[in-house]
Amino acid sequence: MNKIKTTKIISNAKLIGYKNLQTITIENNLITNIKDSFLLPKGDLDLQGDWLSLGGVDLQINGGLGLAFPDLTFEDIPKLDQICAYLWREGIDYFLPTIVTTSVAKIHQSLKVINQYINLPKKPDTAEILGVHLEGPFLNYDKRGAHPAQHLLPLTLENVKLVLGDYSHLVKIITLAPELEESDTVIPYLSSIEIIVSLGHSQATASQAKKAFSQGASMVTHAFNAMPNLHHRQPGLLGEAIINPNVYCGLIADGNHVDPTMLNLILRSSHYQEGIFLVSDALSPIGLSDGVYPWDDRTIEVKNGTARLPDGTLSGTTLPLFVGAQNLVKWNICTVEQSIELVTSAPRKAIGLSCLQIGSPANFIRWHYNESSQKLQWHRV
Q1: I need a surface site. Which of 104, 155, 366, 367 has the fewest CB within 10 A?
Q2: Could you give the 3-state DSSP secondary structure of residue 114?
Q3: Which of these is catalytic: 281, 290, 296, 311?
Q4: Is the pLDDT of residue 199 over 80?
Q5: Residues 278, 134: Cα–Cα separation, whole Å
Q6: What band does 273 get if pLDDT is binned at 50, 70 and 90?
């Protein structure tokens, strides 16, 4: 039995990278045509000059609705359904569950659960898991932040293979401190099996970072946080990353992890449109109210979307990804187009996903900027 063909036309939309308003033709939820609107009559939906984008991509999120991804068990699969549905409602098309430093046994358990989950039939209106981001356990002790010290491991090829186990195909990004390695084998190996190496929780000097980038590292985890400060005589890991046009930097734009002035500084770098994307770095209480929540064998306190350990160590946020885009507009750091790009097309480019183009799924976000209130609002189309 042939499927009934469904066609929808959206007109007068602003698209990233296009000069004029565009009309998009959608057939069976796939984009089949993009043309200047002035050449065509109005479509089924007239956006009246609002922005249109694909959904967001969050490359660093640690849990949701009270569930931390390092704590996954097979009994949590229904909860994963709820998290994916919640993230979809928050505008997210794809995400990488992030497993922070924990025991090798727990890493393997979480990878096993996620691997089973992504092979189940995908439910409609849910964000899709693309793979996993391993944030650790190969981190510098002095820059571990909230990562538990007892589970940090030396950066050796043997240990990397141990942590990946049977699930190297599932890991898309691994955050590590390059200065911990002596053999010069880890980064080339990870690159050879198509795992993106991101530098973070590191004391690397500029020369150590440059060497890591030459070996295949191509990303920086939550730029500015858990790494040496930018210094005019010691530019460090971040300084080397900013001048390298082949390196992507993730940023947290909640206003607490990085001061807006420093966000403005890095976003003004010459390759910013190609080299920066936003992450939420959200912890498991995202989607819940402020309060005190368990976190591995410790607790975190969430106030106004910021999570800290009892000693005051900043451990993450509970703010959804799109809040960062809204903040950048509110702080007059980015244009509306730039802020949308940082949460939609930029993270796609960072991991090799296609952006909005003919053939893309038509999972659209409509963005409206209210000039009088200076608020950037969005909803799914």
Answers
A1: 104
A2: helix
A3: 281
A4: yes
A5: 17
A6: low
Task: Considering only CA atoms, give the Rg of the chain.
Answer: 21
Query: For position 254, what pLDDT does the model report?
Result: 93
The half-sphere exposure of 171 on its side-chain side, counting CA atoms within 13 A, is 28
Phi-psi category of 59—alpha, beta or left, where left has phi over 0 and alpha has psi -120 to 50?
alpha
- Stretch 275-286: mean pLDDT, rounded? 94
Distance CA 20, CA 84 (A): 34
3-state secondary structure of 380: strand
Select from 281, 282, 275, 283 the least CA-distant residue to 342.
275
> Which residue carries 């451990």 as its tokens?
315
User: Which string of DSSP letters, residue by residue, matches 321-359?
Assistant: HHHHHHHHHHTTSS-HHHHHHHHTHHHHHHTT---S-TT
Rounded CA-CA distance 309/365 in Å is 35
The span from the CA of 347 to the CA of 340, in Å, is 11
Residue 281 annotated as catalytic = yes
Q: Which residues pair with 161 in a beta bridge?
A: none
Q: What is the pLDDT of residues 94-153, one digit of tens each?
A: 999 999 999 999 999 999 999 999 999 989 999 999 999 999 999 999 999 889 999 999
- Which residues, in sequence order, are bridge partners of residue 291? 302
Q: Per residue in 12-36, pLDDT tens?
A: 999 998 999 999 999 999 999 999 9
The whole model's pTM is what?
0.95
Measure Cα distances from 51 to 88, 168, 333 in Å: 19, 38, 18
Q: Which residues contact 280 (CB under 8 A, 6 or more apart)?
A: 58, 60, 61, 252, 286, 317, 319, 320, 321, 323, 324
Rounded to the nearest angstrom, the gap between the alpha carbon of residue 201 and the centroid of all alpha carbons in its chain is 17
Whether residue 38 has pLDDT greater than 90? no
DSSP for residue 215 = H
Domains and CATH numbers, the chain: 7-53+360-380 (2.30.40.10), 55-350 (3.20.20.140)
